[in-house]
Structure formats: C-alpha cells, structure tokens
Write a structure and sequence with these properties.
It holds the Pfam family MFS_1. By secondary structure, the chain is mostly helical. Helices cover 74% and strands 1% of the residues. It has a two-stranded antiparallel sheet. A hairpin with a 5-residue loop joins strand 1 (423-424) and strand 2 (430-431). The longest helix has 30 residues, at 149-178.
Length: 433
C-alpha cells in the first residue's frame, strides 16, 4: 500500500491532481512567522532600561544583568535545541518555547522586585528564545528541503531581522505613548498568537503527511534520536582540545559583545542620554535589521571567494573603528553621519557568521554544525557580559562613552585572533598563516 503522495525530485507539482505548491513552503512560512513572533521580545529590553530605572529605581546594572541572563541562556540552550527537537519533535519544543517567552513577558507586568525581572526576562525568556535559535530553522530546512536549502536558510535567518524591523518601532511608540507594561503585553501576545499556527500547520517530518521533502525522495520518518545531547557535549570536549576552537569562540564572543550585548541593549538608552527621542533611536536600530539581511547575503558571497580569516579580520577591524567614532555621532537629532553609521553597522552586524561557519567546517568537518552551536553560545555569553557591564558602566561613569571605546578595542583584538588561526591544508594538515 502506498504511504501517500510522493512528489518527484525537485518538489514540483506533477499531474493535475497534485498541489502546485509543495507543503514544505507552507512549513517554511509558518517557521518564518514563528521566528518573528519569538523575536519580538528581542526588541524590548533596550527600550525599557530607562523606564524601569525611573519607575523602580533599579540600577542599570541590575537591569542589564537580567538581560545578560537571557542572552547567556539563549546561547547555552541553543546547542541542545536540535537534540530536543530530535527527541520530542519540532512542534512540541517550539510550542513550549513560545509559551515560556509569553509567560516571562506577561508576568513582568506585575513584578515589583529586580529578582523577578531576572526570573521572568532572564530564565523564562532565555530558555524560550534559546530553544528557537538557529536549531529551529536548521531543523526545518534539513527535514523539509533538499533543493533550495540555501534560499530557505537565508529567508529564515532574515526572519529575526524582520521581527526587529516590525516590533522595534511599534514597541517604542507604545512605550512612549502608553508606558512599558502595554509593550510587554504586546510582546507576550505576539508569541501566543503564533502557537495555534505552529500546532495546526507545522509538522515534524514530511513523512508525517506522506510527502517527500522538497526536491528529494520519500524517506520514512526516523525514530526519535537518543544520545544526541551526549554527542553535543562530547563534540565540545573534543573541540576544546584544539586551538582554532578557542580563537573562534573568543572572537565570536567579542562579536556578540559588540552587537547584541552593546548596540541592541544599550544604543537606545545611550542615544536618549544625548537627547534623542526613544522612537527615533528605536527606528535607527530597526534600520540596522534591514541592512543586516543585505550584509549577511553579501558576506556569504564573499566567503565563497575570499579567505575567511581575512574577511573576519576586515569585518572586526572596521567595526572597531566605527565604535570609536560613535560617541561623537550621538546627538538629539538624526544627521547624515549617524545614518552612515547605522547603514554600515547593519551591513557588518552578522556578516561574521558565514566566514565563521566556513572556518568551523574547515577545521571540524562533520561535527562543524555542533561546534558552531558552541561557538554561537560563546557569542551570546559575550553579549551577556557586555549587556551587564554596559549598564554598570553607565551607573558608575554617568555615560556610555567608555563602553564604546572599550568595545572598539575588543574588536581590534578579535581581528588579530582570527588572523592567528592556521589554515587547513590538503589531508587536514595545518598551514602557517
């Protein structure tokens, strides 16, 4: 007996009775909307530092510490997210993750102490967003697509930036007009609205509906994978014995420190310190998300043509220089040099991902995806440290200037770190730089 309709290789429609659009594309669309809904919270912390400080008299260091817990758990949960999806299924993991994000955002409306902020924003939201990190898009792409995997990966990666573009101006307007609590409720509702779509429309595997993946042949659904978490830890222990891992992890930690930890968390309050309206600063941050997509695609194209180490050195070096100039660009109004900074920083934001992933593949082969997961964890830990220390520095020095200068110096260090990584030659031998 047939196991159901099995489309031809390439995922085309076939005869008149076949649907013209393969179901994989609907799954990808649901995943896109899910990532946007889950990413809504990422637009919030930077907007609420000043309102929470003003209402509760919490230090910016305390608020930054809550954000740092969220970022650290996001990174540390990510390497295990794929194992959870293999064991329990995509739908169950994503529904629980969205529920955690919504619960954390909603409970914060009634918080009265800073430890509650750390519990709701840090623990609940961090675990939720970490369970929907790159593992979600990678798992959907690998299971449902054989053809067009690169395109789908790019589209789902862009979903995070799209969420920032949608929710940053919206939440900034809500905070400005109605206060921070309605903005937090909005983020919670954005996560909850997506849950029914995930449960009703998302499927764990094409075989669940009797289909082949787009562009591939029909394969039965594999049994739930056991021991994936152990392998994740084993790969970390093996990679930790090699020099390139620490250089990649260290440089990517600086990448996270200078993007998510610094700009995403502290750009809006820093601009507000210089007299800029919160809505204007948030709009600038949203524009970064637009050029983020362009920069990532362009960096992927460059990575196919130039040596990854040198690309990374250029990216980190230029980023460091731009951060050194930022304190001189902050002003009450938006002017052309600031717009140039925003465009440049957007292009450079995650341009580091393609060459970093290429170096992981070069040095770690079939374990490269897991190694990259741990390198991504270091990215979020670096972001967490600066999210916290940036708030402390603002409390101590009365401005963020020292944070911008220190981050610029760290980017210069990252440029040197990636140049030290040795190239792999034929047969896996390492070549001198």
């Amino acid at each position: 007996m047939s196991k159901g309709p099995q489309p031809r290789v390439g995922g085309g429609g076939g005869g008149n009775w076949r649907p013209r659009i393969h179901r994989a594309w609907f799954v990808a669309a649901v995943a896109f909307v899910t990532i946007i809904g889950g990413a809504a919270f990422n637009s919030l912390p930077g907007l609420l530092i000043d309102p929470l400080h003003d209402e509760f008299d919490w230090s910016r260091g305390e608020i930054g510490f809550a954000v740092s817990i969220d970022m650290a758990l996001y990174g540390l949960t990510a390497p295990f997210a794929a194992a959870l999806m293999d064991r329990f299924g995509i739908r169950k993991v994503v529904v629980v993750a969205l529920s955690l994000v919504a619960t954390g955002a909603l409970l914060s409306v009634w918080m009265t102490a800073s430890w509650q902020l750390m519990l709701y924003w840090g623990l609940l939201v961090g675990l939720g967003t970490g369970s929907m990190a790159l593992a979600f898009s990678a798992t959907v792409t690998n299971r449902w697509f054989v053809a067009r995997r690169g395109l789908v990966t790019g589209i789902l990666t862009a979903a995070g930036a799209s969420g920032q573009l949608v929710f940053l101006p919206l939440c900034a307007w809500i905070v400005d007009e109605h206060g921070w609590r309605p903005a937090s409720v909005t983020v919670a509702l954005a996560a909850l609205v997506v849950v029914p779509f995930v449960w009703l429309l998302l499927r764990d595997h094409p075989a669940d509906v009797g289909l082949a993946p787009y562009g591939g042949e029909f394969t039965p659904k594999p049994e739930p994978t056991r021991g994936a978490a152990r392998r994740t830890v084993r790969v970390l222990l093996d990679a930790a014995r090699t020099g390139p891992f620490w250089l990649l992890a260290g440089s990517f930690a600086i990448c996270g420190a200078s993007t998510n930890g610094l700009i995403r968390t502290h750009f809006v309050p820093s601009a507000h310190d210089h007299g800029m309206q919160i809505t204007a600063a948030a709009s600038l941050l949203a524009v970064i998300g637009v050029f983020d997509v362009v920069g990532t695609i362009a960096s992927g194209w460059l990575t196919d043509r130039f040596e990854s180490r040198r690309l990374l050195a250029v990216y980190y070096g230029l980023r460091g220089i731009s951060l050194l100039f930022l304190p001189m660009l902050l002003a009450p109004t938006v002017h052309p040099p600031m717009i140039f900074f925003i465009i440049f920083y957007g292009l450079d934001w995650v341009a580091t991902v393609p060459p970093t992933l290429a170096l992981c593949r070069e040095h770690y082969g079939e374990d490269s995806a897991i190694v990259f997961g741990w390198v991504l964890a270091s990215h979020q830990v670096g972001a967490a440290v600066v999210a916290f220390l940036g708030g402390v520095a603002r409390d101590v020095f009365g401005s963020y200037d020292v944070v911008w200068y220190a981050s610029g110096a760290l980017c210069a260090a990252a440029a040197l770190m990636v140049l030290v990584i040795r190239r792999r030659g034929v047969g896996g031998a390492e070549l001198a730089a």
